[in-house]
Specification:
The protein folds into two domains: 25-216, Up-down Bundle (Growth Hormone, Chain: A), CATH 1.20.1250.20; 230-459, Growth Hormone, Chain: A (Up-down Bundle), CATH 1.20.1250.20. With 466 residues, the chain is an all-alpha fold. Helix content is 76%, strand content 0%. InterPro entries: MFS_2, MFS_trans_sf. Belongs to the sodium:galactoside symporter (TC 2.A.2) family.
């Protein structure tokens, strides 16, 4: 299947191209294409939509904030139930495909209403649109992540699958960041144009992406269950009691926490501490571009070192880069630029490896319990990232306010230094904690190979001979 991403871009020399179990790069790119509309809709949802709806459609910020808060809570509640439901689904189309297809339709229709509102917009109409938007979003995202872990049972192939998704997501996010900038150049201050451009990206990509994703790989038959059927609530409690999963969740929570603290404060640091407001958006884009290039680099490292060792290495690089920010002064913009480049190259290394590890942990759970709950495992993983994003905003902004920083007034040197310390030390501590949690993770390639052999032997024993 033709895509715009050549497979050579992701190619690693550590695994021969002649390996029959190696997944096609073209098919991986096609499978990952659903990340384009999902990511393109996700970025403006938290960054641009609230401001546009307030300025252009007259809704109060308090009302918009409440609606979006309730929407995110609804999204969080949906995640584990969607994971459990897709795990239990049995159809001639597979377990994951029906949810992705149905969710894609709901997502597409609700996105049109969200990005191209018609007539009078009210709090009720916005709440209804967000209700269906998050329903469609979750019905795509959770089964897709679970299916990603099922395309291949091989330890390193799962790293390749996660890499394709990470890079294509980053490209979609970069595009979504550029479109509002173009809108400002064409018609400054035109919020409706920004909304239309971002919504247009979602609209033109959703149907082709659905087609490519659903057709890229055959969905494997659901494993034969040997465990007793349990209520969803009991299953969720069982999954949350898995110590290996909790380590992965904690590590990913810390990664996302550090990234979000940095993202929430970078504009303030560049604008007020560095005194370079013209670079506030550009520096973020600069970091993003190098983040796209980093995915294949970390994949190659992961193929050589293993997943958890690579996650630790990436997090320690993040710690060093963020500690380096402590010596940045308003006169050393070049140093900040260099550290931002390094930050971009290290960005996402932990997320990439940890996402790949989740599927391995789900395999171990299936061997021990007899039930395949990959969808539920990935839903909990997704929920941890969303929680970290909310906590980071709730910590970083009040903290810099408490130390005296205020973007509306002339700040003292002490307040600006405090802003820099939070910007540097908050992510550094978070990434160090992530590395500590995942260090020495016992589920390595050798142990996972044993688990897969045992699962395959059990499957063969349970399937009656023809």
């Amino acid at each position: 299947m033709a895509t715009v991403f050549p497979s050579a871009f992701f190619r690693s020399g550590s695994t021969p191209q002649t390996d029959p179990a190696r997944l096609s790069g073209w098919r991986l790119a096609a499978f990952s294409s659903i990340a384009v509309p999902v990511a393109a809709a996700g970025l403006p949802l938290g960054v641009y939509l609230p401001a546009v709806y307030a300025q252009e459609y007259g809704l109060s910020l308090a009302t918009i904030g409440l609606i979006f808060l309730v929407g995110r809570l609804w999204d969080a509640v949906l995640d584990p139930f969607m994971g459990a439901l897709s795990d239990r689904t049995r159809s001639r189309f597979g377990r994951r495909r029906p949810w992705i297809a149905g969710g894609g339709i709901v997502f597409a229709i609700s996105s049109l209403f969200l990005f191209f509102p018609q007539g009078q917009v009210t709090a009720t109409s916005l709440a209804i649109v967000l209700f269906f938007f998050y329903l469609g979003w979750t019905a795509i995202q959770i089964p897709f992540l679970a299916w990603s872990g099922e395309i291949s049972g091989r330890y390193h192939e799962r790293t390749r699958v996660a890499t394709y998704q990470t890079v294509i997501t980053a490209i979609a996010l970069l595009t979504a960041l550029i479109l509002p900038t173009l809108a400002d150049q064409l018609r400054p201050g035109d919020g409706k144009l920004k909304l239309a451009l971002m919504g247009g990206l979602v609209a033109v990509s959703i149907l082709p992406a659905l087609f490519l994703t659903l057709r890229a790989f055959p969905e494997q038959p659901a494993p034969v269950s040997v465990g007793a059927r349990q209520p969803i609530g009991v299953i969720i409690r069982t999954v949350l009691g898995d110590p290996l999963l909790l380590r992965v969740l904690g590590s990913d929570f810390a990664v996302t926490l550090g990234q979000t603290i940095r993202g929430a404060l970078i504009v303030f640091v560049v604008t007020f501490y560095m005194g370079r407001p013209e670079w506030a958006g550009g520096l973020f884009l600069f970091q993003f571009v190098f983040g796209i290039l980093a995915g294949p680099i970390w994949m190659k490292i992961g193929l050589r070192l293993g997943k958890h060792q690579t996650a630790v290495a990436g997090e320690l690089v993040q710690v060093a880069v963020n500690l380096g920010l402590l010596i940045v002064t308003p006169d050393s913009f070049g140093l900040l630029l260099g550290l931002t480049l390094a930050q971009g190259l290290a960005q996402g290394s932990g997320n990439l490896m940890l996402r790949s590890i989740v599927a391995d942990v789900a395999d171990k759970h299936r061997l021990e319990t007899g039930d395949d709950r990959a969808g539920l495992y990935f839903s909990v993983f997704s929920l941890a990232g969303k929680a970290a994003t909310a906590v980071a905003i709730g910590i970083a902004l009040p903290l810099v306010g408490w130390i005296g920083f205020d973007p509306k007034v002339q700040n003292t040197p002490a307040a600006l230094n405090g802003l820099l310390y939070v910007f540097a030390l908050g992510p550094a501590i978070a990434h160090a904690f992530s590395a500590w949690l995942i260090h020495g993770f016992p589920l390595d390639e050798a142990r996972h190979s044993e688990i897969r052999r045992a699962l395959d032997e059990r499957e063969r024993a349970l399937v009656p001979a023809e």
